[in-house]
Design a protein that fits this description.
- The protein is about 20% helix and about 30% strand.
- With about 325 residues, it is α+β, with helices and mostly antiparallel strands.
- The chain has two domains: about 1-80 and about 280-315, no CATH class; about 85-275, no CATH class.
- A hairpin with a 2-residue loop joins strand 14 and strand 15.
- Helix 1 runs antiparallel to helix 3 (about 280-315).
- The longest helix has about 35 residues, at about 280-315.
Length: about 325
Amino acid sequence: MLRSLYSGVSGMRGFQTKMDVIANNIANVNTTAYKASRVSFQDMLSQTTANASSPSPNGLGGINARQVGLGVKVGSIDMMMGGGSLQPTNRELDFGIENEGFFIVSSNVTIDDPTAPILEDSEVGTLAYTRDGAFFRDYEGNLVNASGQRVLGYVASGLIIDEDNPNPEVVAPDDLEDGDYQEFLNPLKIAEIDEDGGKLQSFSIDTSGKIIAVYSLEGEATTRVLGQIAITRFSNPAGLTKAGGNNYLASNNSGNPEFGLAGSNGFGTINQGFLEMSNVDLANEFTEMIVASRAYSANSRSITTSDEMLQELINLKR
């Protein structure tokens, strides 16, 4: 009977954890690019009261083992990394990734030369990865997220779009060694004044993340490529660690980040003027909430029933 008490307690603990996860999913139903979580359970150690036996020569068949389970435990809390639907916002600095990929942000950039590669942790702090593409420009023109973290990409210098070069490449294939885009990562900036003194008139970002800006100087317009937003992917994105602020960190089970360009080599495309919505399914969450509530009540009933049986046993002494 004491086993049933502790089994009921383990069940209540497990379903309380499940309820915590469900409540967090529902709370984040409108969080940009939020990925829902789910809880799976495993049975705990079973106590064997009799071992299994094989068929005997006298014609008797085999006998199965007799085991009494000792409760339940949380087996895993998984992130459901399926993409949410894209919601149009018509804002020029909102971006949604369609299919595979994450934006890259850094919280501690201390580089004096904006064209220098950022490779050392001491220079960039911790790299974080996000599907939340709600970006902003600060007063210096830096591209940042809502927390002020710098958005990273590949910086271009002197790339002008004209008849001779209608589609310039920010990172040319000849510049890559073994396809390593990481060495070209830099904070992105959309400056108000270009290198020739022209004033920013407008800018746009295409599906590959390329930042195209128009500058005007003395009545003459120049179209420049300022850089390209970098995206990355992981062999096991569900293994990423949530870091708050819609950011993720690489973990021992996520694999190493693979950096690249949107729309190429299996990376998703970047859609300007859209944001990815949460992938929480409210109908499923409310159904799971009902199941968790009933299961919690059933486990509490097993505890009270075991208590009543113990009380009857104690009353035998009267």
